Amino acid sequence: MSQQVDHASKTSSDVVPLRGRSVVTLDDIPMTQILDLLDRAAYIDTHRRQVAHTCDGRVLATLFYEPSTRTRLSFETAMLRLGGQVIGFAGAQLASVSKGESISDTLKTVSNYADIVAIRHPKEGAALVASQAATVPVINAGDGGHMHPTQTLTDLATIRARKGRLNHLTIGLCGDLTFGRTVHSLITTLCRLGHVDFVLISPDELRTPEYVLERIRSSADCTYRETGDLNGVIGDLDVLYMTRVQQERFFNEDDYLRLRDTYILDADKLRAARPDMAILHPLPRVNEIAVEVDHDPRAAYFQQVRNGMLVRMALESALLGDELPGYREQKEVAA
Amino acid sequence: MSQQVDHASKTSSDVVPLRGRSVVTLDDIPMTQILDLLDRAAYIDTHRRQVAHTCDGRVLATLFYEPSTRTRLSFETAMLRLGGQVIGFAGAQLASVSKGESISDTLKTVSNYADIVAIRHPKEGAALVASQAATVPVINAGDGGHMHPTQTLTDLATIRARKGRLNHLTIGLCGDLTFGRTVHSLITTLCRLGHVDFVLISPDELRTPEYVLERIRSSADCTYRETGDLNGVIGDLDVLYMTRVQQERFFNEDDYLRLRDTYILDADKLRAARPDMAILHPLPRVNEIAVEVDHDPRAAYFQQVRNGMLVRMALESALLGDELPGYREQKEVAA
Amino acid sequence: MSQQVDHASKTSSDVVPLRGRSVVTLDDIPMTQILDLLDRAAYIDTHRRQVAHTCDGRVLATLFYEPSTRTRLSFETAMLRLGGQVIGFAGAQLASVSKGESISDTLKTVSNYADIVAIRHPKEGAALVASQAATVPVINAGDGGHMHPTQTLTDLATIRARKGRLNHLTIGLCGDLTFGRTVHSLITTLCRLGHVDFVLISPDELRTPEYVLERIRSSADCTYRETGDLNGVIGDLDVLYMTRVQQERFFNEDDYLRLRDTYILDADKLRAARPDMAILHPLPRVNEIAVEVDHDPRAAYFQQVRNGMLVRMALESALLGDELPGYREQKEVAA
User: In angstroms, rounded to a whole number, what is the distance separating the alpha carbons of residues B88 and B63?
Assistant: First the structure.
């Protein structure tokens, strides 16, 4: 409240590199900017009151062509915590939007209402189409495979918060490594930094695709090994990223039941893990992490939820070109 | 706007007794605090502008696992009128939340977004589970029988606004007294104050359960009488609390039609009532109060809607520990 | 934020003529007030920051008994851009509202929460009923035929923005002129100003109803001619208002396919049009304007979306009696 934000000044000389652009994938964002977004998220976390009016007068539109309440609430809270406002629709409400109108027309329309858009759509490529039609920044909140850049930013922020760094780490990824696009995106982004040892833990039926393995092989000082045995490797890990093993991926129920238990993390399995290993999970979980693990200090998946909101605050303000009060000064002092 | 609220100071030394706790039922809230909430609601009503920034920077999450638009809008308006913001979902949007995720996990997640939660759920006990998992205050907005503490606070606020007191009154309750949990909660709470004469007006099929009658018998100076004849007792009442008689409660339609009209309040029946009797109804009504009654000065049910918003403003700010500007000073002067 | 709005003062002496009333149709709003609303919309467009707190502390309720996302988002954004807040429901969420409760009761309830209401309902006449029950201003956002006053204000604002005036113009209306109530409302309102030459372009099956033609005949210096040939008249037009030709209006598919192409506007047809003709469309479009036309400077339909938000800002603030800072002074200087 005491912070008087001047929109005219903040959109003129203070050029933020990401300002005005859309983010459909992290692949075309320079690594220095990705790391800067993580710095911003960490700064926001410790300067909640200072940043509470960063986006005063802004409006975010959440266009969710399929429901994803968790992701929608995270985007919306992020904007509200920055002082902005929210409009939008989710799933069942969209009848009149989808009725014969193209995504492009909807985005051209919404560009007249909102300053920034988060879009989720069941069809792969929809976010790119949306970003090309819109005259305001668009953030991909999941299309098709439901991979989306803010999930990967969330994962990176959580690893760095727990381990103090993003490489020179042994990172285990466990569960469905074939269809889990969240995992592919995380691996790909970490490979850009290099110096990561991946341990890929899955049943034979759900191994990592060749294009991801090739990405690791071609990266500076990255290695991987594949295994089906979580118990055998858990003691080597700095980070364990759990994913859900969906029954529908298996040909028969016997295989599913046999394998499922192998990939459930519980207190018993955790006894062999390092005392400072970080456990991540993109949530929602079904039963792949036992509830008893929630109270283990290594559990980082609810902290991950919090980081999800923080990286979205960082990204939304950066794309809008609304500078976080005090951030630049603090960074200059640190440098 | 001119009121600059300092969050750091208001969450430190100014200890509000209810601060930080959840409210699943009124039964474990001391009567002094219930009365203080009613005082706060009355204060808010006459100090709208002074309290308009009490919850600046706060976020309420409304998690409505079944639709109840009336209740949801009341909770949301309450937070907006205090300067806060709202996120949430309602009914049809919740697919992705309910998909395999436990209420506990959802509440742990939402605790990272919001400062306070209002939850409505079709299963009895859901609000208690939610309050145990959340790390922020949770308000029960109805679970199972749809009894919820803010409805009872609303009823109490309306009785006090109309009659100037909550006991030394003859209070009639009319209609479905078997399944109407709103009525049970109101009786139970009034019994804690004592000195109330209840007149329980219902068909034989819908009489008050024994546990409620026992509650009245064991209370200081409370009495009750049961009757099926509204006309015969309406002249004795200070307050008449109407409820809906649902057709599905009856074995056959003949019984329903025969009884229904007996429990419809209209101008004709009101001729026998006192000129200052207050007519309450939890709404929505179907036909149990004729529309002609709306213009009678004794009708208090739309004032009740207004009181519903005011008590939610009182409760939300109290649980957040956000002190209403000027309230304490006024109370000290009054004492 | 720097703008301190004083609610007490702005609701006392500064009497705005429209303050406190409901708008179900434009027919009973004096033309001077309609023109003043257009002036206000234009003022808002060039004074975004000055008006950003005009409605601080206000709450708009959007009661959409059927989904119309485009219209809902426009009303909501308008209130948010004025500093107010929004509550409401849309389509699927309304179960509990509609469950046996009359529109009148819902409006009496919501009048306790909100300062102004926008209602959309599938039944003709619902908005009038709502306005009679509510104790706050109600805006008709479409009932029955989906004609609504803010659509016509939007069209007028766009014509005036493009042509500098609302009469002494040749205005073509093309497509479904029988069922397109948007078109009827626009013609009727323009006839109140007089001096408009209408060119009514439609297939024989979809000609303008007699009551609309009679309205034109009885207006001062208005003329019309009917034609089925867009190509033959496009060169004469100052404004071309396109509408959708819906397949279900035709007896057989052959007729539909034969006629449809005649009424699709594309770059080829536009070659014969004047260089400063304005192309309007109420949106959403299906295929009646080719996407290639979007980049033509004559295309005004996305500017129309923007004007829709601006006229809603003008109308909401006027009905609330919240004066736009600086507007009156500017108008006095101009006069």
Answer: 6
Q: Which two tokens stand for residue A257?
A: 């039941």
User: Which alpha helices (H) appear in A170-326, and where do they start and end?
Assistant: 181-193, 210-217, 230-233, 253-260, 267-270, 301-320
- The partner residues of A173 in beta bridges, in order of sequence, read A200, A241
Residue range B278-306, pLDDT digits in tens = 999 999 988 899 999 999 999 999 999 99
More confident residue, C201 or A6: C201
Residue type, position A19, single letter: R
Q: Model confidence at B180, in pLDDT bands (50, 70, 90)?
A: confident
CA-derived radius of gyration, chain B: 20
Nearest to C202 by CA among C272, C133, C139, C249: C249
| Separation of alpha carbons A55 and A19, rounded Å | 13
How many Å apart are CA B109 and CA A141, to the nearest integer? 18
Rounded Cα gap, residues B108 and A303, in angstroms: 10
CB–CB of B69 and C97 under 8 A?
yes
What residue type is assigned to position B25 of the chain? Answer: T
B183: left (phi over 0), alpha (psi -120 to 50) or beta: alpha
Domain A7-148+308-325 is of which CATH architecture? 3-Layer(aba) Sandwich (3.40)
**Beta carbons of B74 and C113 less than 8 Å apart:** yes
Question: Tens digits of per-residue pLDDT, A266-290?
Answer: 999 999 999 999 999 999 888 899 9
Q: Which CATH number fits domain B7-145+308-324: 3.30.750.24, 3.40.50.1370, 3.60.9.10, 3.30.420.40?
A: 3.40.50.1370
Neighbours of A149 (CB within 10 A): 24
How many C-beta atoms surround the C-beta of residue B240 within 10 A? Answer: 28
Q: Identify the CA nearest to A184 among candidates A217, A210, A205, A161.
A: A210
Name the residue type at position C238. Answer: D
d(CA A205, CA A208) in angstroms, rounded, equals: 10
CB contact under 8 A, C69 and A104: no
List pLDDT tens digits, range C162-191.
Answer: 999 999 999 999 999 998 889 999 999 999
Structure tokens at B234: 């309406």
Angle (CA) C6-C8-C13 rounded to 5° is: 105
Q: Are A299 and A270 in contact (CB under 8 A)?
A: no
Predicted local confidence at residue C66, as pLDDT: 86
Contact (CB, 8 A) for A290 and A244: no
Among B70, B81, B92, whose Cβ lies nearest the Cβ of C92?
Answer: B92
CB contact under 8 A, A61 and C80: no
Using the Cβ of A275 and the Cβ atoms of chain B, whether some distance falls under 8 Å is answered with no
Ramachandran region of residue A195, left (φ > 0), alpha (ψ -120 to 50) or beta?
left
Contact present, B194 and B219 (Cβ < 8 Å): yes
The residues spanned by each domain of chain A are 7-148+308-325, 150-305
Interface predicted TM-score of the whole assembly (ipTM), two decimals: 0.91
- CATH 3.30.420.10 for the B150-305 domain, yes or no: no
Q: Which of C56, C104, C113 comes nearest B73 by C-beta?
A: C113
Tell the CATH superfamily of the C7-146+308-324 domain: Aspartate/ornithine carbamoyltransferase (3.40.50.1370)
Q: Does C79 touch chain B (CB under 8 A)?
A: no
Q: Are A265 and A293 in contact (CB under 8 A)?
A: yes
B181 is in an annotated binding site: yes
Residue C292 and residue C295: Cα distance in Å, rounded? 6
* Rounded distance between C-alpha atoms, residue B115 and residue B136, angstroms: 6
Q: Is-contact C107 C78, C-beta < 8 A?
A: no
Q: What is Dmax (Cα atoms) for chain A?
A: 64
Distances (CA, A) of C87 to A188, B70, B109, C109: 42, 11, 24, 13
C-alpha radius of gyration, chain C, whole number: 20
From CA A159, how far away is CA A225, in angstroms rounded?
20
